[in-house]
Amino acid sequence: MGQAFSITPARRLSGEIAVAGDKSISHRALMLAALAEGESVIEGLLPGDDPRSTAACLRALGAEISGIDGPSVRVRGVGPGRLHEPADVLDMGNSGTTMRLMLGVLAGQPGLFCTLTGDRSLRSRPMLRVVSPLRQMGARIWGREEGGRAPLAVWGEQLKAIDFVSPVASAQVKSAVLLAGLLAEGLTSVSEPVRSRDHSERMLRAFGAEVLVDGTTAAVRGPARLRAQSLRVPGDISSAAFWLVAGSIVPDSELLLSGVGVNPTRTGILDALTAMGADIAVENRREVCGEPVADLRVRSAPLKACTIGGEWIPRLVDEIPVLAVAACCAAGKTVICDAAELRVKESDRLATMARELGRLGAHIEERPDGLVIEGGHPLVGAGVESHADHRVAMSLAVAGLVAAGTTKIADSDCATVSYPQFYEQLARVRQP
Ligand SMILES: O=C(O)C1=C[C@@H](OP(=O)(O)O)[C@@H](O)[C@H](O)C1
Ligand SMILES: C=C(OP(=O)(O)O)C(=O)O
User: Fold this and answer.
1) 253 annotated to a ligand binding site
2) Residue 318 annotated among the catalytic residues of the structure
């Protein structure tokens, strides 16, 4: 059990915040740099536990990675199909993205044997969604529940290209298949019901792969050679989301979030909060290394309820815990639906948010695929738990900014998974 964090209401929030580097883009930058020929330089990489898990695996597979704690990380790649066999089990910690994307990388490295594991949460998360399409490509993967749960073992094979129709809109599934397609002969395609985040497609192109995108189908042509790149990782809109909600619900607040990624496959949080009446300005739009970036200015505003579901969900899937906090402070009944995917994240986020916000006095009902939240009932501080889920911990800290008295969050330091600077930045912008 990690440390507890206690928080009392803030009078206002003000200041400028450089939010942590994007976690999704950080994983991809490390992986593609490790597979490329030559030395890549990555600036703004998230120094969080999850990208560190990716870096540790890639090192064990032969990539040279230096400066991981500094402003620019150097990665000397091994070249396609030339990863080294690791001498030990690859431990992916808490990171679903590391395990699912690395399965795609490893399955196509002929003759390479690897075992993959992670923490208790990761070992309980579904892997068949990635293992099944990879097996269709010829991959040999074993594990608990017929390969459905880690620990997993992979024996690398020469893979064949497939056209995969994914039943879930998942960037991890799409990316795993596309990464496997880099070493398969011909065009490997993935079609999904709704377009998920497209960072892999953008970055594969930047590294020199041929990527084709048509509606909700993305394809890569293999075999592909990747060339080392200089990259800059934008701020993570999923981390910015905590400030967008906090700045909206704490009275008299104004926060400027600089250099945040505003890729349209990720900006559902801006659409949802705007529909709820939030005052968010998107300033200074620009493009950085193939990703749209902007500064976001949020000022407090009275929020109203809205319905969040359908095609919005993949564009804000990680922001639902903090949107639930916004809904507690919004007039009327907010309905979050089509979000059953939240049950297979680091925790069952529908159950954990319903339980913990309920402890603070929220009127919140759990549904099989979402939450119904009757806003406007004042929150009152209490002891709550993160369930070792970084987004739950930080969402509860945001709730603590408006809950009367003291909110004490047990096991709060799991925030380091995606946002190591979170509590320090909170102390800086919080006016007591
Ligand atoms: O590809 C990625 O980087 C991610 C995709 C999403 O997961 P799914 O692919 O399971 O939807 C998201 O929840 C996760 O935090 C990061
Ligand atoms: C679900 C998440 O990450 P992952 O799947 O990589 O563990 C997250 O960061 O909210």
Assistant:
1) no
2) yes
Best substitution site from 50, 197, 391 to test ligand 1's pocket, by max atoms within 8 Å of Cβ? 197
The catalytic position among 50, 318, 389, 411 is: 318
179 membership: H or E segment, kind and range: helix 171-181
Give pLDDT tens digits for 379-419: 999 999 999 999 999 999 999 999 999 999 999 999 999 99
Q: Is 225 annotated as a binding residue?
A: no
Its ipTM equals: 0.99
Taking only the tens place, the pLDDT of each residue in 154-211 is 999 999 999 999 999 999 999 999 999 999 999 999 999 999 999 999 999 999 999 9
Record the tokens describing residue 248, joined without a space: 């909206």
Tell me the domains of the chain and their CATH numbers. 5-21+234-431 (3.65.10.10), 23-221 (3.65.10.10)
- The label of the residue with tokens 């490997």 reads 188
Q: Which two tokens stand for residue 237?
A: 């809109």
Q: Are strands 291-299 and 279-288 parallel, antiparallel or unpaired?
A: antiparallel
Give the span between the Cα atoms of 220 and 197, in whole angstroms. 16
- pTM for the whole structure: 0.98
Residue with tokens 């309905």: 335
